[in-house]
């Protein structure tokens, strides 16, 4: 028996994962969820290994779902309050037909077993073979979509915070546009509305997958949600809290004039959430940020917000902090100890207390340009790409300042023909 069930019957998290069970709970409570099925982790393992009986069962289960389809991960442990795994496990959108679902399921399985996902699990203290459930649903063709928090994750205020863009919500989730931002109180009254910069929309391609489609000029900085739609979202937030409990992170879409719930998970306590208001970052940390070229142009309040996201990390003598060619994900300020920088195995310089490295990782996450190795016990303050990006995405002013600073750094690099300090 395959164990594949309609989403409304997914009720065992150990088999189907939190995402599938959460959507099942929503359907059982009468919430508007697109039709779909849930695949248990053992079956997904079997499909990934090419077991013919499992692939046949998959084809039979999804054959009658209206295409195109979306194939989403629902790994056990994903979407918990302490670890959302956002950005680690992929979603394959616009799968053209049932016959193409097998390949998409394999892609999802591999994303949960990738180096980055395993690294994330280890960081959380979870180092075990993942059980990867999968959700297959009919894909909507939304007019607008995005995310909603039932409590403001930045200030902690008891209000809905909504971010929206044209087309599929992946443009918002992936941070590729500056979304419209709204604050709505529990009665549905709009407290604030700020237009973003939405120059393109992600839409389904006729050949499968997605494409970036230019948005009409008059819509780029126009709000993509009406007051009526915002009230509907506020009502959906109340329904989700009734079904799941308080403090929810919701993905939604408006398609054909109807509001749909795509995902509802616990509001995570990391990934860009502000530190408690009572927390005051050390003065020396804030001062150190003033000497970081990328962050030097930020307003004092913005630097203070960035400083709140730093956490201490200690490296043992001889430990590799960053490796040349490896994907970058963090920026470090050295509190104590020394480290050696090498490029292609050749010595470049020694770093000590007050020095920093890896700042460009906060922007692009691309390959490191140098290896940094701890000479002795190296104590650093570090911030990850995953914590920094959501903060910037919610502040167009901060984003524009960083863009201007990067332009200046590029000009300086072009004039001196040497890379700016700290870009390892």
TrEMBL record:
Domain Cyclic nucleotide-binding: 294-392
Gene Ontology molecular function: any one: ATP binding
Protein name: Cyclic nucleotide-binding domain-containing protein
Species in which this protein is naturally found: Nocardioides islandensis
Taxon lineage: Bacteria, Bacillati, Actinomycetota, Actinomycetes, Propionibacteriales
